[in-house]
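Bit of a strange request maybe. I'm writing a small parser for structure token strings and I need a real example to test against, not something I typed by hand. Could someone generate the tokens for this chain?
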Amino acid sequence: MFTGFVTFTERKYAQMATTQLYSEDRDEWKVETPPEAADLLWGDMQQSPKGQGIYTLLGYACVAGLYFAYMPLVIGVSQIAASIDAGPLQSVWAGLAPTIGLQLMVGFLPTFLLLIFRSFFTLKADAFSQNKMQKYYFWFMIIFVVLVVAIGDDVNEFTLTLLTNPLALPDLLGATMPGATHFYMNFLVLQWVTHAMNLIRYVMLAKWKGFCYLYDEEEARKKSEPEDQDYYGLGSRNARFTINMVIGIVFGTLSPPINLLCWVNFATCRLVYGYLIPFAENRKPDLGGVFWVDSLKHLFVGMIIYCIVMTGVISGRCDMTGFTPTFIVSPTIIYVFWSMNRFNNAFSWEELPITKVADEELMSVKKREGKGTYTQAELE
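Reply from user aminoacidic:
Good idea to test on real output. This should exercise your parser:
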């Protein structure tokens, strides 16, 4: 197996090259657009297909183990937080302790996931680990943040119910989710605090102050950057922002004040990250819109959960009127699934049509330059 890079003088030639057949065996050649040069992981590109398969299988096993161990950890941390005596503020602490315990475990989860991805999965570039974490982190938070009330204390039983009797899900969610709206109101308010803490960049400030004792200020600044890419990377940030929007979608009808709290959360995000990302933080390698598109796909998951929850709520409260209301609202689930499938398959966003690629005026627009340079290891 050989891996290499080819540079084209024009974008249209590069796009043509990715669509060509180079042999009768489609698996013999794999041609794709590479990530940024400074982000490449050459060791991953040299792995054999057999080695990739073995390590990937081990990676999936580790993710599954983390899934079944995560809920006991969340419950344990929440119980420890609830057992603390806050004195005169005990009533306030009792309301916030479960949320703080969950938020603490949500904060550590990206580190666990990235450790698994970087150890077992073939990534080719570190940006792919961020994208992979965005997807897995989102699904973990769907299960352990949005659906945590329906799960209860036994994640194994919930998973078994989901796999063996999915038609019971609307009644289960409709019976358990409405009573948890106050928990999610606290959860959203706590997000404001974390955004405000991010604004002062206290971790980088502490690292800079510490390095100033060993180096000059400029060298200390370089060593204190970037921010922790486990929790503050593109993947984890996108997943957390999306899950906050999903909370607003799922619970906004059950408790209208959540809509206001969700709006304040994203207004705060616009203020905080509208400053941090362009003006304070270093530019990170991107994948050309993959994170944004995956966030939109995840919002469809939130809308599906919303339709299931509201179908279950209406079904549980229409005993006197029969099944007519449930019959009216249940097709919305089918429509959202259809819309999600169309979004995934009908729209081409990764590559431009060849008519636009060949448009010299359109292609003359200045593009963002990639960061860093790359030299193939065998040529050194």
